[in-house]
Write a structure and sequence with these properties.
Elements: H1 10-21, H2 27-49, E1 62-67, E2 72-77, H3 84-92, H4 98-105, E3 130-138, E4 145-150, E5 156-161, E6 167-174, H5 189-199, E7 207-216, E8 233-241, H6 258-269, E9 277-283, E10 289-295, E11 312-316, E12 319-325, E13 337-341, H7 351-355, H8 358-381, H9 383-403, H10 409-412, E14 418-420, E15 426-427, H11 429-435, E16 442-447, H12 451-455, H13 458-465, E17 470-473, H14 478-485, E18 487-488, E19 491-495, H15 506-518, H16 520-530, E20 536-540, E21 548-553, H17 558-565, E22 578-584, H18 588-596, H19 601-619, H20 626-638
Parallel strand pairs: 1-7, 11-13, 16-17, 16-19, 20-22
Antiparallel strand pairs: 1-2, 2-6, 3-4, 3-6, 4-5, 7-8, 9-10, 10-13, 11-12, 14-15, 14-17, 18-19, 21-22
The chain binds adenosine-5'-triphosphate.
The site of adenosine-5'-triphosphate has 26 residues, from helix 2, helix 3 and helix 4.
Region (C): 563-640
Family: Belongs to the heat shock protein 90 family.
Function: Molecular chaperone. Has ATPase activity.
Length: 640
């Protein structure tokens, strides 16, 4: 059976395309300027190729002109222009890209030119704002000029025209204003300037526009006698270049001063402080891109809130595609700001398509490695600066490990810092590991409100005295992060509140087991007094000078209980750690309890309350019944 061609309703197709590809109509100007830049590149390349000299890039400007009365906006260039056939092929066929053909036919053109177009659809964006489009063009190949005219969906005409030199002028007659849409905005100088600097600032040819200015009429500030008077002003027109042309990220690092980078960052990302670190990266191969990244000196006020939007600016050959491309940055490095410019991406690509873009994934992977290496070298070579960084953004790194269930551990573990019991300053896990005692089985940690509080926590006392170092976890996320990591370099993390810290020898273990056994009834009496506030009461050897401490059995520690319960949840959804009251078997307080039992159970019960409350106070957990506690202490003091 003969194969039939699909039929397309070109009018509908054009409408569909215009309305689905672009979400923002101001980008029509970006498209036309990119086309003008491509055409100029082609002309320049051709001249080079044919050995013609005398073509100066700076003279090949792209010009914008506005006629407010006629409501037209003209974009013209001195590029390669189009023949009659090319006008028909390129502008008469949707998705036909002369630029892509050019790129494919001129593989060597890569270094000299930076062709942007490839999909053959950008031009039609003009119809988002124009009711009528006229393209007058003269090709560099001949001396005839032609004019292509169209009102959009209904087709086009091509007729002979006049033009003195090669190039193209596109005249857009803007759509009529409606109640919802005001197209006159595209006749305003400040608006056009804004669009050019937003999207086309780094087009390599000057984009010029006549700009209305005002100046004082010479001598008008003095009267005939030479005395000051109110001056008169006159308006005049001056042609200005709107774009800055050379993207700073395309310059080599040595060519740009630190101040230039800082100024660029502060202007572009509205930060009043210079960045903590500038990262430049350019890669060729699977993912070809230039990147200029910055680590801010301070976390933005909304950084740790839902409002914060991560992302890098994404450019394709110097033309802005997206202001905040989230897919370029993994969450754990969401604090990084900056720019990525890749030739391999298309301008017309939508946000949805970008998410699945393989190229983008490759760039993200490569940037992730680069950022990690830069942070590592900062840690190694400028510790002070790194610590400043960590104070601002360390939480995000920890969160990265936690939220990936440990998946990001290899990438991030060596970037973490913790204060420890040994020196009251930051240590990396590797530094801790290197300092571990020879027979040390675990990496010890204690979680609490502050290093000062952890330093006097009963359960840390004996470990510290025996020369074991303890990581002090003071951020809510810390314990969750370590649990997600489970171990570092073959050593498991162990909470200092854990049952078995691995420091007791066999005879010590036996001894405490025996003491628990011998005092079973007394401990049961204390447990009974405390009811289900604790799940067990035991004698311990972990304490030295303190009489009691509270620990937790199972996966949820007391600190985790605090953190989890600080989040909004219904009362019945509150999480409870399995609390264990540990009593120091060698403390005189325990000897006092032993004297009371058996015989004075009433007093044992009252002491149990006091000891439990003391343990809560030490842990920083709110006391459940302060009045009862005060009464019990008073009774104790008065010997009642
Ligand atoms: N100012 C111009 N001078 C010369 N040729 C032009 C000009 N504008 C457009 N063209 C030709 O028309 C073709 C189609 O343009 P269009 O903007 O629709 O797509 P494109 O630029 O090729 O690709 P993209 O959709 O990726 O922007 C271009 O490839 C180019 O050959």
């Amino acid at each position: 059976m003969a194969k039939k061609q699909f039929k397309a309703e070109s009018k509908r197709l054009l409408e569909l395309m215009i309305n689905s590809i672009y979400t923002n109509r101001e980008i029509f100007l970006r498209e036309l300027i990119s086309n003008a830049s491509d055409a100029t590149d082609k002309r320049y390349y051709n001249a080079l190729h044919e050995g013609k000299s005398g073509l100066n890039r700076d003279e090949l400007s792209i010009e914008l002109a506005v006629d407010k009365e006629a409501r037209t906006l003209t974009v013209s260039d001195h590029g390669c222009g189009m023949t009659k056939e090319e006008l028909e092929q390129n502008l008469g066929t949707i998705a036909k890209s002369g630029s892509l053909d050019f790129k494919q036919n001129n593989e060597t053109a890569k270094e000299d030119v930076d062709i942007i177009g490839q999909f053959g659809v950008g031009f039609y964006a003009a119809f988002m704002v124009a009711k009528h489009v006229e393209v007058t063009s003269r090709s560099m190949e001949g001396d005839e000029a032609w004019c292509w005219r169209s009102d959009g969906a209904d087709g086009y005409t091509v007729t002979p025209a006049e033009r003195a030199e090669c190039g193209t002028a596109i005249v857009l007659t803007l759509k009529d204003n409606t109640e919802q849409d005001n197209y006159d905005e595209f006749l305003q100088e400040y608006r056009l300037r804004g669009i050019v600097t937003k999207y086309s600032d780094y087009i390599r040819y000057p984009i010029r526009m006549p700009v209305e200015k005002s100046r004082m009429v010479e001598g008008s500030d003095k009267d005939a006698e030479g005395k000051d008077k109110t001056p008169e002003y006159e308006s005049y027109t001056e042609v200005e270049t709107l774009n800055s042309m050379v993207p700073i990220w395309k310059k080599r690092k040595g060519e740009v001063s630190e101040e230039e980078y800082d100024r660029f960052y502060q202007d572009k990302f509205y930060d009043y402080e210079a960045p903590l670190k500038v990262i430049t990266s350019s890669t060729e191969g699977l993912a070809t891109y230039n990147a200029l990244l910055f680590i801010p000196a301070r976390a933005p006020y909304n950084y740790y809130s839902r409002d914060f939007e991560k992302g890098l600016q994404l450019y394709s050959s110097g033309v802005l595609i997206m202001d905040k491309c989230a897919d370029l940055l993994p969450d754990h490095f969401s604090f990084v700001r900056g720019i990525v410019d890749s030739q391999d991406l298309s301008l017309n690509i939508s946000r949805e398509m970008l998410q699945h873009d393989r190229q983008l994934k490759l760039i993200e992977g490569s940037l992730e490695k680069k950022i990690k290496n830069e942070l590592e070298s900062l840690l190694k070579n400028d510790r002070e600066k790194y610590e400043t960084f960590f104070k601002e953004f360390g939480l995000q790194l920890k969160y990265g490990i936690y939220s990936s269930y440990g998946g990001a551990k290899d990438l991030l573990a060596d970037l973490l810092l913790y204060t420890t019991s040994a020196e009251k300053k930051y240590a990396t896990l590797k530094e801790y590991r290197d300092r571990m005692k020879e027979d040390q089985k675990y990496i010890y940690y204690a979680a609490g409100e502050s290093a000062a509080k952890l330093d006097v926590m009963p359960q840390n006392e004996r470990l510290k005295e025996q020369g074991y170092e303890i990581l002090y976890l003071t951020d809510d996320i810390d314990e969750f992060t370590l649990k997600a990591m489970r171990e570092y370099d073959g050593k498991e993390f162990k909470s200092t509140s854990d049952d078995d810290l691995g420091i007791d020898n066999e005879s010590e273990k036996e001894e405490i087991k025996k003491q628990n056994e011998d005092n079973k009834d007394l401990l049961a009496c204390v447990k009974d007094a405390l009811g289900d506030r604790v799940s067990a009461v035991v004698l311990t050897s972990r304490l030295k000078s303190y009489p009691v401490c509270l620990t937790a059995k199972g996966q949820i520690s007391l600190e985790m209980e605090k953190v989890l319960n600080s989040m909004p949840a219904p009362e019945e959804g509150k999480i409870k750690a399995e609390r264990v009251l540990e009593i120091n078997a060698a403390h005189p307080v325990f000897a006092a309890l032993q004297k009371l039992y058996p015989g004075d159970e009433e007093k044992v019960r009252s002491y149990a309350e006091i000891l439990y409350t003391q343990a809560l106070l030490i842990e920083g957990i709110p006391v459940e019944d302060p009045i009862a506690y005060t009464n019990a202490v008073c009774a104790l003091m008065t010997g009642e």
